[in-house]
Amino acid sequence: MTHSQPARSRTMIKTAALAALLGASNAAWSATPPDTLVMAWNIDAISTFDPAQIGEVVTNEILMNTCSALVDYDPEDATQVVPALAESWEVNEDERSLTFHLRDGLTFPSGEPVEADDLAWSLARVVKLGFGNAATLEEYGFTTDNVEQLITAPDPRTLVIRFDRPYPSDLMLQAIAANRVATAIDRDTVMAQEVDGDLGNRYLTTRTECAGPYRLRQWNAGEAVVLEANSGWTPAPALSRVLIRHVAEPGTQRLLLSRGDVDVARDLTPEDLAAVEAAPDLEINKALRPQLFYWGFNNDDPILSNQKVRQALQLLVDYQGLADTVMSYSGIPRASFVPLESFGALDQSEGQPFSQDLDRARELLVEAGYPDGFSMRLIFGTLPYSATVAQSLQNAAAQIGINLELERMANAQLFSRVRGREYQMSLQSWQTSVADAHGMASRLIYNPDNRLEARNTMYPSWNSAFYSEQANQEIEEALFETDPAAREQRYHALQREVFELTPRVVLFQTYNIVGLNQQLKGWQSNGFRSYYTLTSK
């Protein structure tokens, strides 16, 4: 007869184990576990680890270091993809299908082999669940009715993805094959935990059951995430464990880094980064990423629905002043919705044509019918620069009669409010998953259905209640333009049009920037994420 431990006892044991890890680096650098990558990061945005549902940059990076996708971005050149679960692939001549050949010897943490049918099911599962990440596949023609016919596994090592139209193959490799939706989930393990037809969604809230270098050992919300290397994965990570400590305050992160209690600090302010850069045993690492920090508007608001009001708000931004101070390490001024280093992006100068002009902003308010200004609430999260940027906007707005009431909140609450359209203004970031203008155009501008009941929460365009039938058509035409030079010009024209529409005010393109202890070797980042498996001590 066997006896299982009570749930309370199991929780106490887990908590004790986590406490031991957290306490393993209390004094000097030498106390940091030699087999563990230790990070300080604000991870309050985490709400699930289901690849069908997550939408936050933090959770995406953790997941993509845990679950391998069909292909991956080259760590040193994010415009290129390299083999991952798939060792090779072919593109059909008419660009209507991709055929992937899986690596030999892939296994799940359960020990079961990874087969192409697992990937076909995992991709179809995303569409069937219908959470936000279903849009990743739905925008390229996949539906609950056709996904199982279009994504098939003719044999255990071959996966075929067919398309309804000839989408650019390079874009499909980035948008689908390198995306979290193309990770392999252990179907048998997850479906054994299915509840009320949820395809294991509740189970994957706090677990990972996928093929990759690490697996989620533990997540204590507001405390830490622990990843543990999968024994059957090759090549094996140099460090067998990753400990991510939830540390909300940048100053505390820097203190932990300087004392050697953590290897990496992820959310440092310019002051913190300057101190790290000056320290003999510390360094900073940064890579420009396809992430935009922007001032979001709910275009359903009766005031913000006025285009001239939105144009006036654009002219409140002190791009250069912010670039020289709070954003000096964190990003570069960028007003275009297409990030630099993406196909179709305007160059740095044309992509940021604005400067603060309070006189013209006043004139636009008068033209809009608001000569005496108005009051508006601006919500923002815990990014280290959000509060200072919000205060800069508040001060500028006050000079033309606009009263901005500021409200700071946890990132998870911010995302919930914005995705429910329960806000007027927000400060937040959005990152594309592809190095192509379509990645941002298809989310920030394109809106498939603006009705409230559509609940297209993974479209910032929907979250901001912005809808333009003309822009939708232009984005679709650009996607299927077969001449690359003409396609690029279409995106250039669209960016100029959006400057006039002003559905939101893009402020900066951000860096993936971290503080490092020099005893950590091999830290590698590109625009999309950092690569834990490449680090060593």
Question: What is the structure about, briefly put?
Answer:
The chain has 537 residues and is an alpha+beta fold. It is 31% helix and 21% strand.
Question: What report would you give on this structure?
Answer:
- This protein is α+β, with helices and mostly antiparallel strands and 537 residues long.
- The chain contains 18 helices and 17 strands.
- It has helices spanning 7-22, 57-64, 116-129, 135-138, 147-150, 169-177, 187-191, 250-259, 270-278, 307-314, 319-324, 358-368, 386-398, 411-419, 437-445, 460-463, 469-479, 484-501; strands at 36-41, 71-74, 77-83, 86-91, 97-102, 151-155, 158-162, 214-220, 224-229, 241-246, 264-265, 282-297, 331-333, 375-380, 403-408, 425-431, 504-517.
- Strands 1, 8, 9, 10, 11, 12, 13, 14, 15, 16 and 17 form an eleven-stranded mixed β-sheet that branches. A four-stranded antiparallel β-sheet has the order 4-5-7-6.
- Helix 17 runs antiparallel to helix 18.
- Residues 1-15 and 24-30 have low confidence and may be disordered.
Helices and strands in order:
Layout lengths: L6 H16 L13 E6 L15 H8 L6 E4 L2 E7 L2 E6 L5 E6 L13 H14 L5 H4 L8 H4 E5 L2 E5 L6 H9 L9 H5 L22 E7 L3 E6 L11 E6 L3 H10 L4 E2 L4 H9 L3 E16 L9 H8 L4 H6 L6 E3 L24 H11 L6 E6 L5 H13 L4 E6 L2 H9 L5 E7 L5 H9 L14 H4 L5 H11 L4 H18 L2 E14 L20
Parallel strand pairs: 1-10, 1-11, 14-15, 14-16
Antiparallel strand pairs: 2-3, 4-5, 5-7, 6-7, 8-9, 9-10, 11-17, 12-16, 12-17, 13-17
Helix pairs in contact: 10-12, 15-17, 17-18
